Design the sequence.
C-alpha cells in the first residue's frame, strides 16, 4: 500500500479536531435529554433541542458515536453518554418480546409498539459498542438476533408486512462484521459471510451492476429498471462493507465487485460540479433526486478510503480526498451540520438531525484508521 496523500492526513486532523472540540461537546450537552432520558432527535440552527418523538436508531447510534469518543481524544463523559443511551433503549424502546419499538413520545398514554428490522440492526450495534468497551452484552445481542425473521432465500425479512429491503440487510451486514471483529469467528462471522453472499447472489443486478432498495419476497427488484430506486450512497456503503468483510476474512473475493460498485456510483451518482453524491437514480441510472443529503458523502469517503487501502492506486486516494472535501461542505464550526444540499448548491434551512452523527463518526474513524501512523 502506498502512503496516504498529505491532503487526506490534513483532512483527518481537521475533522477529528472538529469532532472533539465542537461536535461531541454539543451533542452531549444539548443533544442528551438528561431530564427525560435518551437523546433529542434534532437540534435547531442555534443548537437548541427540538422537542418531539425519540427514535430507537438515534439512541443506538449515539451509543456507537460516544463509544469511539475516547479514541479521538475527547475527554468528556463518553461512558456516561453511552450508558445514557443504552438505558433509554432498554427502558423506553425494548418491548416485552425483546424487540425494540421504533419510536417513543413523552406523555403518550399507549406506546407505539411498531418495530422495524432497521432499528433492530442499530440496537445490535449499540450492544456491540457496549461489548467493545468492556460491558458484557453478547448474550443480549444473541437474544435479539433470535427474534429476527430469516428469508428462505437469504437475508432477513421485515418484522411486519411484505417485501424485502436491502437497506436493513445492509446494516445487519455492518453489525455482523462489527460483532465478528469483537467476538472472533463463529456465528457472527458466519452471518456476515451470508450477507456478503446475499449481495453477490441476490442484490447486485447482473445487467446493471446496481443494488436496488426494494425487492419482492423472492429478492427480485421491479421488472422495469425505470421503476427501481438506486441510491448512490448505498452503492458506496455496500462496497465499503464488502471490502471490510474481505479484510476481516483475509480474502479478496468481494473486492472486485466492490470496486465496480464504487466506480459506478462515482461516475453516475456524483455531481462533480458540486462535488457531492446526490440522493437517487433510477435503475436506468437516470438522475431521480438531485438533492444531496449529508450521509451519502460519508459513505463515499469510506468506500474510496478502503479502495485506496486495498489497491494502493493514486486514483482512489485522489477520489477519497475529493470526498473528504465534499463532506466538509456540510459541517459547521458550531458542531452542527446541514443535512441536505439542494440542486443549486444551497442548503435547506432546517434543524440538524442527531442521526447523522453516526455517519460522520464512521467516516472520520475510517479516515483515522487509513491515514494514521499505524495504517
Sequence:
Amino acid at each position: 500500500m502506498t502512503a496516504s496523500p498529505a491532503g487526506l492526513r490534513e483532512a483527518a486532523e481537521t475533522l477529528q479536531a472538529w469532532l472533539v472540540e465542537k461536535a461531541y461537546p454539543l451533542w452531549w450537552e444539548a443533544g442528551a435529554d438528561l431530564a427525560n432520558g435518551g437523546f433529542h432527535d434534532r437540534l435547531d440552527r442555534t443548537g437548541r433541542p427540538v422537542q418531539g418523538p425519540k427514535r430507537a436508531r438515534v439512541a443506538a447510534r449515539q451509543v456507537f458515536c460516544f463509544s469511539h469518543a475516547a479514541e479521538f481524544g475527547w475527554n468528556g463523559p463518553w461512558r456516561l453518554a453511552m450508558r445514557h443511551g443504552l438505558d433509554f433503549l432498554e427502558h423506553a424502546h425494548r418491548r416485552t418480546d425483546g424487540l425494540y419499538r421504533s419510536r417513543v413520545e413523552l406523555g403518550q398514554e399507549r406506546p407505539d409498539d411498531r418495530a422495524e428490522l432497521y432499528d433492530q440492526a442499530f440496537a445490535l450495534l449499540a450492544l456491540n459498542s457496549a461489548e467493545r468497551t468492556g460491558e458484557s452484552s453478547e448474550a443480549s445481542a444473541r437474544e435479539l438476533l433470535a427474534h429476527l425473521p430469516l428469508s428462505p432465500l437469504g437475508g432477513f425479512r421485515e418484522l411486519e408486512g411484505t417485501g424485502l429491503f436491502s437497506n436493513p440487510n445492509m446494516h445487519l451486514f455492518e453489525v455482523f462484521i462489527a460483532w465478528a471483529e469483537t467476538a472472533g469467528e463463529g456465528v457472527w462471522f458466519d452471518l456476515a459471510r451470508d450477507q456478503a453472499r446475499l449481495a453477490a447472489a441476490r442484490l447486485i443486478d447482473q445487467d446493471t451492476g446496481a443494488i436496488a432498495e426494494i425487492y419482492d419476497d423472492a429478492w427480485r427488484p421491479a421488472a422495469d429498471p425505470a421503476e427501481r430506486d438506486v441510491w448512490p450512497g448505498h452503492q458506496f456503503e455496500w462496497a465499503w462493507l464488502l471490502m471490510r468483510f474481505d479484510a476481516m476474512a483475509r480474502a479478496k473475493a468481494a473486492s472486485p465487485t466492490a470496486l465496480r460498485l464504487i466506480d459506478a456510483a462515482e461516475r453516475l451518482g456524483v455531481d462533480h460540479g458540486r462535488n457531492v453524491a446526490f440522493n437517487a437514480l433510477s435503475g436506468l441510472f437516470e438522475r431521480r433526486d438531485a438533492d444531496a443529503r449529508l450521509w451519502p458523502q460519508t459513505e463515499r469517503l469510506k468506500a474510496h478510503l478502503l479502495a485506496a487501502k486495498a489497491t494502493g492506486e493514486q486514483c482512489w486516494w485522489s477520489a477519497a480526498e475529493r470526498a473528504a472535501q465534499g463532506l466538509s461542505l456540510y459541517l459547521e464550526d458550531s458542531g452542527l451540520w446541514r443535512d441536505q444540499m439542494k440542486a443549486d448548491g444551497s442548503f435547506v434551512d432546517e434543524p440538524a438531525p442527531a442521526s447523522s452523527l453516526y455517519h460522520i463518526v464512521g467516516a472520520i474513524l475510517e479516515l483515522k484508521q487509513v491515514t494514521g501512523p499505524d495504517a
